[in-house]
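Request:
You are asked to prepare a plain-text protein record giving the amino acid sequence and the backbone structure tokens, at your earliest convenience.
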Amino acid sequence: MAQFNESTLRRVTQGDESAFAELYNHYKTPALRFTVSLLKDEEEAENMVQDVFLKIWLRRSQIKPDYNFNSYLFTCLRNMAFDYFKKVEKSEQMRL
């Protein structure tokens, strides 16, 4: 996947909702595919992708447009998936 347009990322950091929609539409399918491959649960993966994009919007002022957004996004998704696995494991241990 090609790196997303830096000028559009700058617009996102400035609160441009249409630029954020472009960002979301560009990454939603590969992000979902990646997350489903980790979780093996499409519904939970969809929720996770939505959560990550919400966090990105809420923290948009912290985005560095000249950095690799692709790496940032997929690292966020991976970390959220790991947190989910820990939560599930802890929940299962508490049932025993």
